[in-house]
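Severity: low
Component: inverse-folding endpoint
Summary: output formatting inconsistent between runs
Steps to reproduce: submit the following C-alpha cells with default settings.
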C-alpha cells in the first residue's frame, strides 16, 4: 500500500512536469517530420505504460525514441534503470536536461533500431512511443533483440493487424512474424489529440510477451513469409511450393500439399492459413537447410 501511494505521488509529479514542459516545447522545439515525432501530451499515456510495465516487472527498460523525456519521466517512477535512446541530436540535449534529476535514467544519442538489432543494451523490456513510419523495423528489431517483452504505442491499424485472425483483411506477414515469437495483447486506446503534433490516426498500446527466442536460422522464416505474403490472395499450395523451391531447390514440394491436406486447407489462400500451419511448414524448411 505504501509503495502504491509513493508511486502515485511520483506519477502525479511527472504529470505536472509534462504540462510545464508542453508549454516550453511549443515555443522552443520544431519537430522534424523525417523522425515521425509525435510527443505525448496526455498523462493517460504515461499511466497506461506504467500499468502494463508493472505487470512485467522489468529489470532494465530500453526506451526507443525517448524524445524530450516526457514518457521517460513516467517510466522512471518504477525506479528501474532506463536506457533512453533518441536519434535526433537537437532533442537529445533536452532529454538530458529533463532527466538530469533522475540518476537511474541514461540518455543516449543513437539509432534505437540499430541498437536493438545489435543487442547493445542489457535491457529485458522495450518501451516506446513508436515513430509510426518505423513501426515495421521496430517490431522486427525487437524480435531479433530477444528482449522478453515490449510495451509499444502503435497506430491503431497496426495494432489491429497484430491480433487479426486468418482470413481477415488485416492478417499478413507481420501478424504471423510477431505472433510466432510473442503473445500479443492490445490495451488502451488513444485519440490524435493525446499527442503533439496530432497524428491523423488513433493509437493503441500493445503488449508483447516473448514465447520463442530469435535464432539466426529464423532468417529462413522471415524470407519464406515475405515470399508467401507477396501473393497473399492466391492459392497457398501454389504460392508456397514456389516459395520453398526459391529458398531451397532440393525440397520436395509435395510436402506442402500433404501438410495442407492434413489440415483441410488444400484450397485455402495464403492469407487464410493459420500461424500453426506456417510454423509446421517452417519446421520442414529447417530440416532441408
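Observed output (run 2 of 3):
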Amino acid at each position: 500500500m505504501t509503495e502504491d501511494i509513493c508511486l502515485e505521488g511520483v506519477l502525479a509529479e511527472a504529470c505536472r512536469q509534462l504540462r510545464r514542459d508542453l508549454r516550453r516545447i511549443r515555443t522552443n522545439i520544431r519537430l522534424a517530420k523525417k523522425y515521425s515525432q509525435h510527443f505525448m501530451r496526455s498523462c493517460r499515456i504515461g499511466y497506461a505504460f506504467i500499468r502494463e510495465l508493472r505487470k512485467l516487472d522489468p529489470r532494465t527498460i530500453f526506451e526507443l525514441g525517448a524524445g524530450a523525456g516526457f514518457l521517460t519521466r513516467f517510466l522512471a517512477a518504477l525506479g528501474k534503470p532506463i536506457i533512453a535512446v533518441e536519434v535526433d541530436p537537437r532533442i537529445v540535449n533536452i532529454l538530458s536536461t529533463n532527466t538530469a534529476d533522475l540518476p537511474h535514467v541514461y540518455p543516449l544519442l543513437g539509432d534505437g533500431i540499430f541498437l536493438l538489432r545489435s543487442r547493445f543494451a542489457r535491457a529485458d523490456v522495450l518501451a516506446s512511443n513508436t515513430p509510426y513510419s518505423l513501426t515495421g523495423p521496430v517490431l522486427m528489431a525487437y524480435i531479433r533483440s530477444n528482449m522478453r517483452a515490449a510495451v509499444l504505442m502503435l497506430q491503431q491499424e497496426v495494432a489491429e493487424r497484430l491480433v487479426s485472425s486468418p482470413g481477415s483483411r488485416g492478417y499478413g506477414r507481420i501478424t504471423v512474424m510477431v505472433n510466432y515469437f510473442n503473445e500479443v495483447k492490445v490495451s488502451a486506446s488513444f485519440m490524435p489529440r493525446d499527442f503533439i503534433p496530432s497524428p491523423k490516426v488513433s493509437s493503441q498500446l500493445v503488449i508483447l510477451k516473448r514465447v520463442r527466442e530469435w535464432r539466426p536460422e529464423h532468417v529462413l522464416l522471415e524470407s519464406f513469409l515475405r515470399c508467401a505474403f507477396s501473393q497473399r490472395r492466391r492459392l497457398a499450395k501454389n504460392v508456397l511450393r514456389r516459395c520453398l523451391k526459391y529458398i531451397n531447390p532440393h525440397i520436395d514440394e509435395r510436402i506442402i500439399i500433404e501438410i495442407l491436406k492434413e489440415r483441410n486447407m488444400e484450397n485455402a489462400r495464403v492469407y487464410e492459413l493459420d500461424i500453426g500451419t506456417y510454423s509446421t511448414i517452417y519446421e520442414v524448411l529447417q530440416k532441408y537447410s
